[in-house]
Each structure stands twice: as C-alpha cells, then as structure tokens.
Amino acid sequence: xxxxxxxxxxxxxxxxAVEFRFNGKRLAGYEGDTLASALLxxxxxxxxxxxxxxxxxxxxxxxxxxxxxxxxLGEGARFEPNQRVTTTELFDGLQATSQNHxxxxxxxxxALNTHLARFLPAGFYYKMFMYPRAFWxxxxxxxxxxxxxxxxxxxxxxxxxxxxxxxxxxVLVIGGGIAGLTAALEAGKSGARVIVLEQTAHWxxxxxxxxxxxxxxxxxxxxxxxxxxxxxxxxxxIRTRTMGAGVYDHGYALGYERLxxxxxxVSGPRHRLWRIRARQIITATGAIERxxxxxxxxxxxxxxxxxxxxxxxxxxxxxxDRTVVVTNNDDAYRTALALRxxxxxxxxxxxxxxxxxxxxxxxxxxxxxxxxxxxGVAKVKGSxxxxxxxxxxxxxxxxxxxxxxxDCVAMSGxxxxxVHLWSHCGGKLTWDADQAxxxxxxxxxxxxxxxxxxxxxxxxxxGHLRTAEVIADAxxxxxxxxxxxxxxxxxxxxxxxxxxxxxxxxxxxxxxxxAGIALRMKAWLDYQNDVKVSDVQxxxxxxxxxxxxxxxxxxxxxxxxxxxxxxxxxxAVLSQALNAEIPQVGITTFRPPYTPISMGAxxxxxxxxxxxxxxxxxxxxxxxxxxxxxxxxxxxxxxxxFPRAGETVHDAVTREILNTRSNVGLLDASTLGKLIxxxxxxxxxxxxxxxxxxxxxxxxxCRYGLMCSENGFLIxxxxxxxxxxxxxxxxxxxxxxxxxHGHMEDWLQCEWWDWQVYVANVTEQFxxxxxxxxxxxxVLEKLGGMxxxxxxxxxxxxxxxxxxxxxxxxxxxxxSGELSYEVAVPxxxxxxxxxAALEAGAEFGIMPYGTEGLHVLRAEKGFIMIGDExxxxxxxxxxxxxxxxxxxxxxxxxxRGQERSHMADPNRWKLVGLETLDGSVIEDGAYAIGxxxxxxxxxxxxxxxxxxxxxPTLGRGIAMGLVLHGPDRxxxxxxxxxTGGGSVQAxxxxxxxxxxxxxxxxx
Amino acid sequence: MxxxxxxxxxxxxAGAVTVRDEGxxxxxxxxxxxxxxxxxxxxxxxxxxxxxxxGKITGNAAKGLAWMSPDELLVLVPHAGAGAVAxxxxxxxxxxxxxxxxxxxxxxxxxxxxxxxxxxxxxVSPVDMHPxxxxxxxxRRSRIGQVAGAFWIDADEVIRVICFRSQADYVFTxxxxxxxxxxxxxxx
Amino acid sequence: xxxxxxxxxxxxxxxxxxxxGGEAHLKRFGPGASDDEFEGYLFVRENPKGVxxxxxxxxxxxxxxxxxxxxxxxxxxxxxxxxxxxxxxAHIRKAITAKRPGWxxxxxx
Lengths: 1003, 188, 109
Prior knowledge:
The complex is a heterotrimer.
Chain A: E1 3-4, E2 13-22, E3 25-31, H1 35-41, E4 48-49, E5 56-57, E6 70-73, E7 80-84, E8 94-98, H2 112-115, H3 124-128, H4 135-147, E9 162-174, H5 178-189, E10 194-197, H6 207-210, E11 213-214, E12 217-218, H7 219-232, E13 236-239, E14 242-247, E15 252-258, E16 271-283, E17 287-289, E18 302-304, H8 305-315, E19 317-318, E20 323-327, H9 333-341, E21 349-351, H10 359-366, E22 371-373, E23 375-381, E24 388-393, E25 402-405, E26 408-412, E27 415-417, H11 420-424, E28 429-432, E29 437-440, E30 455-457, H12 467-484, E31 497-498, H13 517-520, E32 524-526, E33 531-532, H14 533-541, H15 547-554, H16 567-577, H17 582-585, H18 599-603, H19 620-625, E34 629-633, E35 636-641, H20 649-662, E36 664-668, E37 673-678, H21 682-689, E38 702-708, E39 714-724, E40 727-732, H22 737-750, E41 758-761, E42 766-772, H23 776-783, E43 798-803, E44 806-811, E45 820-826, H24 830-841, E46 846-848, H25 851-860, H26 895-898, E47 909-916, E48 927-933, E49 939-951, E50 956-964, E51 973-977, E52 983-989
Parallel strand pairs in A: 2-8, 9-10, 9-16, 10-13, 16-30, 18-26, 20-21, 20-26, 21-22, 36-46
Antiparallel strand pairs in A: 1-19, 2-3, 4-5, 6-7, 6-8, 11-12, 11-31, 14-15, 15-16, 17-27, 23-24, 24-25, 28-29, 32-33, 34-35, 36-42, 37-40, 37-41, 38-39, 39-40, 42-45, 43-44, 44-45, 47-50, 47-52, 48-49, 49-50, 51-52
Helix pairs in contact in A: 5-7, 5-12, 8-9, 9-10, 14-15, 14-16, 20-25, 23-24
Chain B: E1 12-13, E2 18-21, E3 26-31, H1 37-47, E4 57-59, E5 64-69, E6 72-77, H2 82-92, E7 99-102, E8 107-113, H3 117-124, E9 139-144, E10 147-153, E11 159-164, H4 168-180
Antiparallel strand pairs in B: 1-2, 2-8, 3-6, 3-7, 4-5, 5-6, 8-11, 9-10, 10-11
Helix pairs in contact in B: 1-2, 3-4
Chain C: E1 3-5, E2 12-14, E3 19-23, H1 35-42, E4 51-57, E5 65-71, E6 77-82, H2 90-99
Antiparallel strand pairs in C: 1-2, 3-4, 4-5, 5-6
C-alpha cells in the first residue's frame, strides 16, 4: 500500500496538517503536499478511470506530465474539471472528485469497454460511425457526445477574477531548475532585463532530489544561494508557480501564473497571463522520464521511477512497500537506492540491458538489492492495483521465468528532453541515438524578425543528463543570450559539479522484445488517450505511414497530453512497424500551451461589464433612467424603444411612431458618424468616394450620398453637408464612422497621396438629436436662439446658431418623411439640450422614440437601411437608387465593378415594396417562392424580404424586398415562405408607402 | 445656458492606485505640415510651447502639444476656450492646407496615480512600461484593453489616459479593475 | 504574433495594434479597364511561400498605412516603408537579395 513515511519530505511542513476531501471522503495531508502526494499518503492509488476503456488508473508521474491524475476540483462557481493532481497544491478544504466513471470510481459500467477493447481499436470511430448514414443523427452522435470529453463543463459563472500583464524582457528564462538558474545568473550579471519562470512552487528542479554537488556545495545550498543572488538583481524578476505556456513568433511568449490556487482565501486575481515579448528565450525545461511498454503498465502502482523517488524525497510518501524497479538505464537505480534509504523493500531491479556494471548498479548490489540483467516484465499482476510482476527474458516472447510479489513497479525507459517550448515556434530537433532522444538542434533554432535565433535550449532540455554538463551548457546559454541582446559578458570558469557516472542506456521500445498480440494489447503508450502498442501497429498496417496521420488515427499524443510521456515510445513503435529509423518517421507538432491553461486566464479582465466595450452616447444616462429597451448597434447601445408602465415593447414602438407622425418625436442620433473632410482636393476626393457629385454641393446645403466598394457593392450612405469652400461634413451610418474613416484614410494614404485632403473623425464631439414631426419647428422656436423657419432654413440645408443657449448646428434633413431637424450640439451639453427639448416640447406632445421607431418610419418612406437592404452583394442599382449615381463622372469607387456583366444583368433581384393581401407582417428573411426546383431539389426562389414591419401609420404589415424583375411587376402577387411551413401572399407595390410626394418633410 | 459635463462626471476609484476622471479638457486635432513655420507659430500662440518630437509630448494637460502622427498634433488647452483656440489656429494657418478641429467633447481624460500605476497600464496595453522605456515626455498611442487610447506619464509618475468619450466608461472601469487587482511586482 | 516597426512613428508595434491590409503595390484599374485587368486588380494575389509585400495600418497608433517586406515562411521582416511607394525601395530590395538571392515577386526582383 502507499503510505506516509515517518520522516522525510523536504516540501512538507509536518507541523501543519491540512484536511481535504476526495469523492466526499475526508482525508488528511500536510502543508506542502500536492493533491497527488496527499492521495498516495492516504493509500488512494486509484484516482480515475481512463478515457476510452474506463480502466482504473493512478498517478504515473509527479509533475506536469501526469496523464492519468485528472480530477474535478471545487464546486459550484469554483468547479473546474481536468485538474492535474500532481500540480495541484493542497490547501485546507480542497474538494476533489474523480472523473470518467458511472456510477462510481470503484464500480463503473463503462469499464465494460475494456472487455470490448478488441472491438474498439484505433480508428474505431471512423470505421463504425460511417454507415448507415441515417444512424448518425439519432444514434451515433448522441452516443459520441455522451462518451466524449474528459471532465464535465462547469455550470456556473466562474467566481474568480483573472488578468493579463504585458512584460518586456531582454532574456526570458523558462524553467527554474539548476540550468535555468545558472543561465539566469549569467544573463542577469550582464545587466540584461531578465524574467525567470518556474512552473512549480520550488526552485531547483530534480537536482534537489538527486542531490549532486554543485560548486563544491550540496545542490540545495547552491540553489538557495542562486535564488538569493537573483533576487538581489534589480534587472531580474523571478516567479514560481508560473509556467512558460507557449513560445510564439517574434519573441512572444505566454507565462501562466497561478496566484491563489494554493491559497484560495487570498483575494485578488486567481491567474495572471503574462504576455511577454523577449529578445532571447532560454528554454531550461528539463526532461521527462519515459514509461516502458509492457503489459499492464497502466495499473495503479506502476509509476515512473523518478516519480517514485520524488514522492519519497519531496513528500515523504512511499508508493509501495515493495517496489520492483524496471529499467534500461542507470538513473533508475537511484530510485532503488532512495527507497532502500527510506527503509523500504526493493525485491529486484529488472534491467533490460545484458550488463549493468556502473557505479550505481554496483551500489545497489552492495546494498543487497537483487539485480536481474537481460530481463523484462512479461506482465504486471493485479486488477485494480499491482500485486506483482511476471519476469521474462527481454530478448524472448514473454515466457514467465518467475513472479515477484510487489505493490509498486518503478519504471524507467530513459529520458526525453522537454522540447515543447523549443518547438512551438519552429525549432527543429535532432535524434540522439546514444541517449535515444530527440534534442534541440541548435543549428535550426526558431528565428525572429531579424532571422536570428531567439530560443536557446539549456541543460537537460538540451539533452544533457549529467549535472556538470547541464551547468556548463546553461552557463553558455545564459552568456549567449546576454551577448545577443548586447549585454556585457565576462568569461569566467563555469561552476563545477559532480554526480555519479552512468553507463549507456539501451533503447527498449517493447518489453519483452518479442511480445505477442495479447501482451501488446495491454501495453499502453498513451495513458490519457488510451492508445496501446497494438493500436499504433494497426495504424501502420492500415497505411497511416505519416506520423501526423497515425497520431490522428490513433489519438496518440493528442489533446492536453501533447505527447509528454507517449511521444517517443509511440514513434518508436511506429517506426518499427514501418521498418524505418525513428528520425525518418519524424515527430508530431508540439502545440502550445505546454499544459492546459485556464479559460479565465485567456479571457483576463474581459468578462461581465468588461467583456466588450459598450459605447455610450452623452444621453445614455437618461435612456437608462427612463426604462429604455436597448439594442446593440455595432458597439453602441441604442434605445430600441421606451416602454412605459404597462406597455409591451411593441406597444411602445407603435405609440412612439404615431406620436412622431402626429406631434413630435425626439431621437438620440448621436451615434451617426461625422467625418470632416477638408482641403483643396476634398471635393474631388468626395466625388471619387460617393457615387454622386459632392464637389458641386453649395455651401450651406446637404445632399444624400452613397458609397461603394471597388467591387461596386454599397457599403455606406448618409447626408453630406458643405461647411465652407474646402470643408465637407460627411455623415455615416451608426457603427460606420470608424470603418468609413479608415476607408478614406486608406485611399488618401495609399492611392491618392498627392491629393491635399485631411479627414478628422468628429463623431463623438457632438450629440446629435433629431426633432421630428409636424410640431418640430414649434419646439425649436420655443427653445429659441435662431431662425428655423422654412425661408431661412429650408429642407436639405443647415445653419449654425444657438438653441436654448447651447451652440448648435441644425440640419434640415429627414429620415422619416416628417418635418425634421437634426441638431448637433457639443457632447458635453448634449444631455442638457435633450432635457431642454423635452421640457420645451411637452406642450407639443413630444416623446422620445427608439431605433425600432426610426426603422419603421424610414421603411414607411421606402428609405433603405445599410445592413437590411444591403448585405455586401447589393449594388445601388438593385435598390432603385440610380438617381444617386452620377452618369457624368468618369470614375468613382465601384464604377468599374458595377460595369461587370453580372452587375448589369437584368435578372438581378431589384427592390420593391410588398403588401400582404391579408395585412399580416411577412417574416423577416422570408423568400419569394418561384417555379420548379434547383439542382439540390430545393424550391427555386425569386426574391427575398429585406425589411418587414408592422406599420402603425398604415395599420398593416409593410415590407421591402429584392424580387426578380420586381419593378416591372407592380401589382403582381407573389408567394412568400413562412417558418415551419405554409406561405403568405403579397402584392408587389412601390416601396414608398407613405407621403409619396414627399410634401410633409418639406414644410 | 448649461454647464458642460464630462462623460465620467468626476468619477474616482480610490485605492493604492487611484483612477480619476480629470474632467473636461480642451483638445484640438491639428493636421498639417509640421515642418512649417506657420504651424509652429499657431501652436506657439495656442500653448506657448515648442513642437514635440515624434512620440513625445511637451507641456501638460492644461497646455500641451502631443505628437499623434507625422502630420497630426493634439493641442491641449483649457476646455472653455478650445473652440476659440481652434478657430484662431485656423486663422493663423489660413492659406495653407490644414485642419484644426475641436475634439474636446469627443474625448475623456483619466489619470492613474499611485505606486504601481505603470503596472496598471501594462495590464491593458501591449506597451513596455519600464521606466527605461517609457519616461516623462513620452507619448504613446496604443490599445487600452479592446479600444484605442493614448497616454503619457509625468515626472511625478502620474499617468494620463485619453480615450473616446463613448468608451470612457469602459476604459475607466477597466483601469479601476486593473488597479484594484493590485501590483504585479514587475515594474518596481 | 508579429512585431512590425511603423516607419512613421518608429514604434515597434505589437500585432494587436496593427490592422492587416492584404497585398501591397496593387495598381488600381477603374472604368475603361478590361475584365482581365480589373480581375487582376481586385482578385488575383501572389500568396507566395517566401518573400511577400504587404499593407499594414498602425491602426491603434499613428493611424498610418505602411508596407512591410516579409518572409511568409520564416516571418523574417526585411523592412517596412511608407505606403506612398510605387515599388519596394532599393534598400529593401537589396536587403532581400542579400538574404534570398534570386527572389522575385510580381515584376520585382
């Protein structure tokens, strides 16, 4: 059984006990534990069930590479699935539950899958769910959805907060082991700005477990001194609990800092995402031990040899009382020795090599530990946890020579450098046959904007497994980075280091070498995705020769695992099946993040009120105070209508429209874009931008204009006012201001840069308030200050003056067909003007109206709306706007585009009005049904509805639509679709439903 | 006659770092040929200041000149007279191609002051806020969260942020949240 | 995520401060142009693997459009230059030739 040892555990504070729950069971640990070590201390070997076969699984590793130990953490608003027990620091009150089982961890129905494993091989989903096609929707998809995914998605809104932080550094060091610290010291001494990130809570990495001598001191002392030295440097920032998550183009890197995961009682952001720009990045990310592929290597109790050592040394936890070590290298002997030192039993070391004679094996033998060379594990005994191993000859097919009882198997297949961060941005690898590992190829490092390498791998991450080499390599890495950023580097001798000599490892990709199918089907490569040796071999047989294809077919190394444990073993199996060398098979792409980071960290502050910027007009406060029903228009919030007590929104819209038609309405039109275009060539420029002529507009007058893209499609419309000889004011649609401003700047800067034109966006300088309706003039006259009579200020003109003591520019323009003034006042006085207009208008029946009223009023008049009548495929000619297109101009943006044959096709759908025969409102987006069917067997269509409303003025439904030959078919009745079947008939009519002569707006 | 009001109406979020609405400020967008004597004269008349170098600001929020682009300055003057100053600049520049627009009401001015003010900006802008990279007199246009903004820092380490009036609430809320979330411990 | 230095204000701008604008050095064809010319102007693009010339706007900064010469494979930036350029300036072409001898892009080399 796994248990807490009486002594040891350098991370533990044994004076402070911590209580936590696992699947509701109350358990105890110590401050300094991870959830993994605390569970093991409580003999909780089984932690979850596997993804596909629901096999019992326990921890395999002690760090970020852990594939099995994923749990649900927390509850309610702090629930989070798929949290690694090995990287979760224990705190008082922690609550964890296991995943992937039903009804319970111990008794799981899905575990039946393991007996069906023969029928669930690689590519099962692709093969099984193809036919019959009709099964997909009701049988296959629900089944896959039920079984897919690891944990459960949280149901409540996350209670925590998160933030981003932009940091710039000369040198970013990822990894706080002895390599990272050495490199950071070198870079720091040069005066460079340095950031050092360590993903765990502790500096020093594995060195503190294996305890080599560094600089004549014990490793622990050296690490302590190094951290103190770095802390003293003003130019160096060091962070624990911060993982280097990804390395991207041009020196961009992400750091994932976990601030309160281990101390939830502390306030402040839970995670911080460091968005770092570094000129040089040193990846000192260490190495990960590889599992060995033997039957039953996924049983709880089969653990990486280094992890067994970590649990003993760091946490005072023994994974088992009797541990058999299985290895192909000398390093795993350290585990046997550490366990022996802790007073535990090591019945045997099974070494696949035919010889083991280095200092470490000799020490083991001297300690009385039995060493079996040339041997392997035929299979692991036990069902839910290890009870023993069957020993066989590594060179054979698995004939059992003896069985050894044990409750833990410590396995080591050699080490793989963590090359993820090196590889994220294109760093290439080279195969080191001696150590059977891919290591960074310094000649093919990721390069930056200047084509120079910007990533340097250091230490174990660079393939150096001996301490002295690690220190020497990291020293040079730190200096090289410092030199690359122009730092001063003084050449001093690298710190000396000592550890035990190690003999060469021997690659072992399958144990035993000749294992038959029964064993291979139980030899796991990828624990997290449940991929076995037999699956990869099947993929190769079925023709998946590319490593990337085999990966997708088998799911090997996918998802959150990113091949940390499985990659090399899987590749080796594939290369053997393909009869190719490992480097020829190649390696799959390593994708960021290194391990999953929280959604919250990615989101940062952008949630709730800050999810997206909401733009507010100067009158926004009044709208809120008066119960406006808002709608988003671009990033603006505009009042849709102002419902009163007892009114529905529809009632309010009707009231607002009728009142505007009969008395006077008030509209907050501040969101309309306002662009000043000024200069000697401004007139010429606007003639190119608009389809009609703006240069001839007289000072003081207004003209409606259309803007098209070079494709000919209508992109914006609005009223243009001539301010003075060389100045025009262009109104754009709401939400169009920035886009059209950019459009203008693009043409001015990139095409017509010799034209003398300046543009300024003054949209927000003004609150623009439309006073609309038969009584509009009376309201303005009561506000007083300027002459707004028809004689002085006729339709389509503007004038400057003051109203209610506020400087105002008044435009006589109308989007409703009524007598209408749009009044622009300084934004800082916009609310004051609004209040004054409401007060002055009270006796004339003034009421504010919202955007829905605006839409209906304009639709009653047959005015088009960008985004309703247009969708990026509509040209002005489609909309009957030929009158606004100059025939005389030799050029304007879109003219050539509109001359294309398709644009001139008489069969293009054209704008008409539509009136239902029964007076009902046509559904938004309804299609006009034509004769016959198309190639897909769907009914042909001959038109579509672009705007449709109930018109309170006319007491019936009105609509506009684009219809085939529409303008030539006035009076004809067409049939339109309804959702869910049925249809409605409508007559084609003139789109101007109200005041066709336009008399009301011109009074 | 009514009193003009700023978008944020004097909002303050007090804390270790205080975020404060600085109220209405006069701002004029001036576009023209920055190399001409006439333009320099117009700026001198308006503010008494020499033209800033690219990426710099001269003066302060009450009287200042900020470099916006190779053909654009932001002229900072008291709010009350901004319209008149813009008109006067236009007069001085008459006959040359230019544009002087009063944009005072299209903007909001927010200050961020306190020990980790630089870090508050570094949370929301992709800008190197290290004192060695961003010092008094520097003027930077960039992002504030998801929107456009500009900011500078004065000798007392007070940062002033300019944004659009309609986005003032977003920018203020974002800065206040970033201030409230505390120091990072990276920029001293 | 790229960093491009704006040639107008000198800021080494983060990609989040920039707006991408597609291929550079397009020649506009208006009324009177043939269908082929117009198609080439509106739709036909180089999409190269290697040296490329692009339009970028320092949208969250000085607002100016500029052009960038860059390698689409390695993301090496050979240089940025003002949008008011009919063709890549000599010093940029020289810099590219030094790194990618024999390169061509449309009519440039």
